[in-house]
Amino acid sequence: MPLNWIEIDLSALRHNFFQARDRVAPECRVLGVVKSDAYGHGMIPVARELQKCGASFFAVSKFWEAAELRRNNIGLPVLVLLGIEPADMEEAIRLGVRPAIFRADQARDFSKAARRLGMPARVHIKLDTGMGRLGIPAEELCSFAEKIKEFPGIVLEGVLSHFADADERDKSYCEYQAGRFVRAIGEASQQGISFAYCHISNSAGTLEVPQAHFQLVRPGIMLYGSPPSGEPSDSVDLRPVMTFKSRIIQLKTVPAGRPIGYGRTFVTRQESRIATIPVGYDDGYFRALSNRGQVLVRGKRAPVVGRVSMNMITVDVTQVPEACEDDEVVLLGAQGGERISAEEIAALCGTISYEVYCAIGKQQRFKYFLNPSTDLNEAT
Question: Are 21 and 223 in contact (CB under 8 A)?
């Protein structure tokens, strides 16, 4: 067993997927967002499991992620949210990968690649309905789509936008964005421009904005067990998918008045049992957890004392007298009746659960995938 490792519970992933699917109409498809290595959870095993569950699409940020899905025999349609560079367009068309389109020159180059191959090139137009980030202004959909239609080989498969704050309790801006999206689609329809897939709902939209489900929803963070608002909700039952573990490599008793760690930011007030754990900020365990974080040892909480260093933390296990060297330590996840959630860590670090998962998952070479499904029909 390595010093540090991640366990990914695929049964929890399946459960969360069905929480999303059960909230949309039968004719609405579910797209699994698996960008950034499935938020640190492992893109290929996660995508395989979601494909078995009945996902209809996947979304990634960059083309190489889509190509990696194809190399691993994952055949569902894949949408590349940041678009595709000209050098990759022919391969993308061969692989059936769709780009989000937000510039006319992207469509022109994609059309040239399609003509060279003699194959159709499916695209989704990205609209800015109020996020202010990526996409053409919603009011320009008709003129943009008409321009795109002039390029041979281009198939207008979808149109998408993104909510800015669907995770907030106040849904007024969310409703404003949905309204702009609906108007743009309606105006396009009046001009004979239609799309097989209109989609704007992320996890929060999937859970709380049913009028904006359209033909496709795009759950992301909820698939991995975190509520999009960062706060637990009685309306949905989400199960954390990731557990981050390490072990005690040294345990020693130190007297009162002994400094611990860089900068001597912690000094023992009494004789204490200090455990050294081989994990640090290089492993995705944030330095902001210095003298603030907690871990689980033998099912009990134990505080991180001293600074988090690059590869080690120190933990006070005085209140866990049964703790021993080589004991398992849970930094994220459950042990016994206790749980340390990504939301708890995020609150201590002034960030969000997304960053917690990505930081940990990106750095951990060792991932163990638990409870994979074996029946391809179990989700139907």
Answer: no
**pTM, rounded to two decimals:** 0.94
pLDDT tens per residue across span 352-377: 999 999 999 987 779 999 999 875 43
Residue corresponding to tokens 């917690």? 356
Angle CA 70–76–82, to nearest 5? 75
Q: Residues with Cβ < 8 Å from 271, sequence gap 6 or more? A: 253, 254, 255, 256, 318
CA distance 40 to 287: 19
* Coil/strand/helix, residue 274: strand
pLDDT digits (tens, 9 = 90+) for 50-91: 999 999 999 999 999 999 999 999 999 999 999 999 999 999
Residue 293: strand, helix, or coil: coil
Q: Looking at the annotation, which residues are catalytic? A: 35, 262
Give me the phi and psi of 67, to 5 degrees please. Answer: -65, -35
The domains found in the chain, sorted by start residue, are 10-224 (3.20.20.10), 242-370 (2.40.37.10)
Give the largest CA-CA distance in the chain: 79
Three-state SS string over 135-202 comes to CEEHHHHHHHHHHHHCCCCEEEEEEECCCCCCCCCCCHHHHHHHHHHHHHHHHHHHCCCCCCEEECCC
d(CA 212, CA 199): 8
Closest CA to 59 of 241, 165, 216, 214: 216
Residue 135 in tokens: 């996409």
DSSP 334-356: EETTEEE-HHHHHHHHTS-HHHH
**Amino acid identity, residue 183?**
R
Strand 313-316, strand 272-277: pairing? antiparallel
DSSP percent split of the chain into helix, strand, coil, nearest 5: 35, 25, 40
The string of pLDDT tens digits covering residues 321-345 is 999 999 999 999 999 999 999 999 9
